[in-house]
UniProtKB/TrEMBL annotation:
Protein name: Lipoprotein
Organism from which the protein derives: Bizionia saleffrena
Keyword field: Coiled coil
Coiled coil: 61-116
């Protein structure tokens, strides 16, 4: 939204600058008299007064005009510098937001990996305790023992995988 506004403002300023840089310039002197310059001729209230003005008055009017044109050029340059700085700041902000999102994603993945590791480790611990308890009571057949050992080995493998995943982050 700001970019559209800035673009419209720049366009308007460029049109005004173009119109003011035409062959006709208006100059307002400090005492409030408005002069129009068309080429090298001076007009006041639509009447040509080139011959009536003194050389000093003409140079004063030209100096006022030159100062205004110089000021407008400086203003345009400053405006362009400001726009460039705004664009640069917008790019830097976008880059920082992107980096922040990437960092948040990395933190979230590490947290998920940590949670997964503890969950699998706790499950292995509980299964080991249950297996030891059942063996201690003598309630397991040789086939049951093989099944429990396979289950425990799978859980140990999952714990190792979860630990490796956690170390990657």
């Amino acid at each position: 939204m700001k970019n559209i506004f800035v673009l419209k403002l720049v366009t308007l300023f460029a049109v005004l600058l173009f119109l003011s840089c035409g062959s006709k310039e208006k100059v307002i002197t400090p005492n409030g008299i408005v002069y129009e310059l068309k080429g090298s001729k001076f007009y006041s209230n639509g009447e040509e007064i080139t011959e009536e003005l003194s050389r000093e008055k003409k140079s004063e009017i030209n100096e006022i005009l030159n100062n205004r044109i110089e000021f407008e050029k400086k203003a345009e340059k400053l405006k362009k510098e400001l726009e460039d700085a705004q664009n640069k700041a917008a790019k830097a902000l976008k880059k920082a937001e992107k980096e922040q999102k990437a960092l948040a994603k990395k933190v979230r993945r590490k947290d998920d990996a940590r949670k997964d590791f503890f969950k699998v480790r706790d499950k292995l611990k509980k299964q080991n305790e249950k297996y030891q308890r059942l063996i201690g009571k003598g309630k397991l057949s040789p086939d049951d023992i093989n099944g429990w050992e396979k289950t425990i080995k799978k859980l140990e493998k999952k714990v190792q995988d979860a630990e490796q995943k956690l170390k990657r982050y």
